[in-house]
């Protein structure tokens, strides 16, 4: 029988034990899915899944996005890594390092797409001795905490999400080709969304949100930045300190996340699968 232990002093997240993700019957998966809907983030320690096993588990939640840029040999799984194929570490000041740096800012995966991602699954293959944690923030509780005036401004607002905007603020844009950038036009999403499984409303913002439709651009950006800054405060956040073999799934529809930095002379290799949104069809991923 699985054990689900909510993260202490946080409004989201739980650690799940007593299960081997390679050997799931339908009833056990139903328990996992229900816990995921409730807690938004589930941590499974010491699973040590292979790429094929991670993909098989991920497909339980829906179809997977496929990569449009370099990653693992299988286009359904990506390596988030500072290690080159020949084993050398990437230069900490180079374009690819800047590209990876974007992951250290609060965001939700694929919000810059017409149909954003449903979920992300990350597993640890190599972890640094220092740093490299991942943090998550509960955008359901963030919406619940809004004062009446701010909630009125957020309800009904539409934000523009743009990967060119978010990555352009950091650098490393030359990692993508012109054709890849052309495949990433800005898209619009409601600032407040309702979760299809739970019915709970939540904020939908993060670093890819560029501005708000119909609002002065700078005023809209200021509102988006304030909403995100307020959302990522205790008790709406928790961090996971990775060990090799750990696997985490989170709900991109109602959770923000960010990776923490680590020393550039230490290796970090993570494998990510991304579950496409329910209406996405055969979607791609970065």
Description:
This protein is an alpha+beta fold. It has one domain (3-285): Double-stranded beta-helix (4-Layer Sandwich). 24% of the residues lie in helices and 25% in strands. The protein contains 8 helices and 17 strands. The chain has helices at residues 26-39, 51-59, 95-101, 139-144, 148-154, 163-168, 178-182, 217-231; strands at 3-6, 14-17, 41-44, 66-67, 78-81, 119-126, 134-138, 158-161, 187-190, 192-194, 201-203, 209-212, 237-240, 247-251, 255-259, 269-275, 284-285. The strands form 5 sheets. The protein has a 7-stranded mixed β-sheet, covered by helices on one side. A 3-stranded antiparallel β-sheet has the order 13-7-15. The longest helix has 15 residues, at 217-231. The two termini are 36 Å apart.
Under CATH, the topology can be stated as Double-stranded beta-helix
Number of domains: 1
Continuous helix count = 8
Strand content: 25-35%
The topology string of helices and strands comes to EEHEHEEHEEHHEHHEEEEHEEEEE
Strand order, biggest sheet?
1-2-3-14-6-16-5
What's the mean pLDDT score?
92
Quick rundown:
With 286 residues, this protein is α+β, with helices and mostly antiparallel strands.
Protein traits:
single chain; 286 residues; alpha+beta; Double-stranded beta-helix; seven-stranded mixed beta sheet; three-stranded antiparallel beta sheet; 24% helix; disordered C terminus
